[in-house]
Specification:
Blueprint: H1 3-6, H2 12-46, H3 50-78, H4 80-98, H5 104-132, H6 135-167, H7 171-174, H8 176-190, H9 205-224, H10 228-250, H11 259-262, H12 265-281, H13 283-295, H14 300-307, H15 309-324, H16 330-348, H17 357-384, H18 391-420, H19 431-457
Helix pairs in contact: 2-3, 2-5, 2-6, 2-8, 3-4, 3-5, 3-9, 3-18, 4-5, 4-8, 5-18, 6-14, 6-15, 6-17, 9-10, 9-18, 12-17, 12-18, 12-19, 13-14, 13-19, 15-17, 16-17, 16-19, 18-19
C-alpha cells in the first residue's frame, strides 16, 4: 500500500506557514553566527573594548532567553500569528537600524531589540507549524524548520566573513532585511486564521518575572565563566529557578505548566536530549574554525568553505529524517543520530597537526548526518507529546533548550581554554596548548553526548 497516495495534497496555508517559519528560523541563527565574524571590524570602527564587544554577541542571546517562555504563553492566549508577525516586524526594523548604528551603545540596544523580535517569532513559529500540519505530515515540515536553524548557525560564519570582507560589517544587518520583509508580506497575505488555544486564560506575571530573572542570571553567569562572579550569579539563578517552579505549581494558570515535566516522560527526556545535543555540538564550528585557521593556516574564507560541508548534509537529510519520524518511532531515528554525533565528536578528539582537510570535511559530514537524524525526529516527539493548548509553551521550551545548550557548549570550551591557555592570545608559542584544549573539549562533548543517547532512547513511544 502506498501511503503517499493516501495523503491529501499540501494546502496553500501549509506552504505559506512552512515558508515563513523556515525563513524566520534561518534568520535568527544566521544573524547570531554571522555577526560574531564581524566583531573585529566593529571593534576597529568604534574602538570598543573587549567587554563592550562581548555584549554585541551576548545582548541578543540574553534577550531571547529571558523572553521565550513568557512570549510563548502570550501567543497561546492572544494569538500566535499576532506575536509571530509582530516579532518579524520588530526584528526587521531592528536589523535595519543596526546597519546605521553610530555607537556601541546604539548597536547593543539594537541587539536587544533583535532578541526581543527573535523571541517572538521563534517561540510561535514552531507552534504554528505544529498547529497547521496534520500529524502525518508534521515530521517532514519540522525537518525543514530544523534544517533552516542549523543552516543559519553553520553558514553564518562563512557568509558573515564574505559580507564583512567585501561590503563591511553593516551588511550583516542589512542582508536580513529583505528576508524579514518577505516573511512579513507572506504572513499577512497568505496565513489565514489565528491560533490561540489558551484564549481567555490570565497571564501569569509573577511567574514570568521569576522565569526571566532566573534565566538572565543563569545565561549571564555562564557567559562570565570561569570568573568567580559567574559562580555566584549561577547559584542565585538556580535559587530563582527553584522559586519559579514552586510558584508555578501553585498558580491556576501558570506561564509555564511545570507539570509537563513531572508527568510526561516523553516530553522531559526529549527536552533533555535536545539540551545535551546542543551543549555537545554548538562549539564545533567555533573550535574547528580556529583549528583550520591557526593549526592548518587557512584564511577565513577557506575555513568557512570547509565548514559548509556540515549544513549541506543537514539540508538534504533533515526533511527526510523528519518524514521518517512520521512513520517510525522518533526515538529510534534520533538515537541513531545521537550515536553518529558521538562518533563524529570522537573523530574530532583525535585531530592533530597532520590531520588533513579531507578528514575534517568527512567528519563534519558525519556530524551533519547525525544532527539531521536527531533534530527533526526529536522535535517531532516534543511537539507530539503535549496537548494542542501547550504548543506555544513547548515551542518556547525547545528554543530555550537550544539557547541554554549553546551557552553551555561555549562555556565548556571557554573553561577548557582558560585552564590550559589562560587569558592569552593564541599564538604559535602556545599552539600545542590550543590543540590540547580542542581535543579535550571534543572528548568532553563526546562523553556528554553519550548520556544524550540514554535520554533519547529511553523517552518512550510517541505513538502507542
Amino acid at each position: 500500500m502506498n501511503l503517499l497516495k493516501e495523503r491529501p495534497p499540501v494546502s496553500s496555508q501549509e506552504k505559506a506557514v512552512l515558508f515563513v517559519a523556515t525563513l524566520s528560523s534561518f534568520m535568527g541563527p544566521f544573524m547570531i553566527s554571522s555577526v560574531n565574524v564581524a566583531l573585529p571590524a566593529i571593534q576597529q570602527e568604534f574602538g570598543a573594548d573587549a567587554v563592550a564587544l562581548s555584549w554585541v554577541a551576548t545582548a541578543l542571546l540574553l534577550a531571547v532567553a529571558v523572553l521565550l517562555i513568557p512570549l510563548g504563553k502570550i501567543g497561546d492566549i492572544y494569538g500566535q500569528k499576532k506575536i509571530f508577525t509582530l516579532g518579524l516586524v520588530v526584528y526587521t526594523l531592528a536589523s535595519l537600524t543596526g546597519a546605521f548604528s553610530t555607537s556601541m551603545t546604539m548597536l547593543i540596544a539594537v541587539r536587544v531589540f533583535q532578541g526581543f523580535g527573535a523571541a517572538m517569532f521563534v517561540t510561535t513559529g514552531m507552534a504554528i507549524v505544529t498547529s497547521v500540519f496534520p500529524p502525518e505530515r508534521r515530521g517532514r515540515a519540522i525537518g525543514f524548520y530544523v534544517s533552516a536553524v542549523y543552516i543559519g548557525l553553520s553558514v553564518g560564519p562563512f557568509a558573515g566573513g564574505l559580507l564583512t570582507q567585501h561590503l563591511g560589517w553593516r551588511s550583516n544587518f542589512g542582508v536580513v532585511v529583505p528576508f524579514g520583509a518577505a516573511s512579513i508580506w507572506v504572513t499577512l497575505k497568505y496565513l489565514k486564521g489565528e491560533w490561540a488555544d489558551a484564549k481567555g486564560e490570565k497571564f501569569d506575571i509573577p511567574g514570568s518575572l521569576l522565569y526571566s530573572a532566573s534565566v538572565f542570571l543563569l545565561v549571564y553567569g555562564a557567559s562570565l565563566l570561569p570568573r568567580l562572579p559567574a559562580v555566584y550569579l549561577i547559584l542565585v539563578g538556580v535559587i530563582a529557578l527553584m522559586a519559579f517552579v514552586r510558584v508555578e505549581l501553585r498558580t491556576p494558570q501558570p506561564v509555564f505548566d511545570v507539570r509537563l515535566f513531572s508527568g510526561n516522560k516523553l516530553f522531559v527526556f526529549s527536552c533533555l536530549a535536545a539540551l545535551i545535543n546542543y551543549a555537545a555540538t554548538f562549539a564545533v564550528t567555533f573550535l574547528i574554525s580556529l583549528f583550520l585557521q591557526y593549526i592548518k593556516g587557512l584564511p577565513p574564507q577557506a575555513a568557512g568553505t570547509i565548514l559548509v560541508a556540515q549544513p549541506v548534509v543537514m539540508a538534504f537529510l533533515s526533511p527526510l529524517a523528519g518524514r521518517l519520524s512520521d512513520r517510525i518511532e522518533p526515538r529510534f531515528i534520533s538515537s541513531a543520530g545521537m550515536t553518529l554525533t558521538v562518533l563524529g565528536l570522537l573523530l574530532f578528539a583525535l585531530i592533530g597537526t597532520e590531520t588533513s582537510e579531507y578528514y575534517i570535511i568527512a567528519t563534519l559530514m558525519v556530524l551533519g548526518f547525525g544532527f539531521a537524524l536527531f533534530s527533526s525526529p526529536n522535535m517531532n516527539a516534543i511537539m507530539g507529546a503535549v496537548d494542542k493548548k501547550f504548543f506555544g509553551i513547548a515551542s518556547g521550551t525547545v528554543a530555550a533548550m537550544r539557547l541554554l545548550g549553546q551557552m553551555t557548549s561555549m562555556a565548556i570550551a571557554m573553561v577548557v581554554f582558560a585552564v590550559f591557555i589562560g587569558r592569552e592570545q593564541i599564538t604559535p608559542n602556545n599552539y600545542d596548548l590550543f590543540l590540547k584544549s580542542v581535543k579535550i573539549s571534543f572528548s568532553i562533548f563526546a562523553v556528554l553526548c553519550t548520556f544524550g543517547i540514554f535520554f533519547s532512547f529511553s523517552r518512550g513511544a510517541l505513538r502507542k
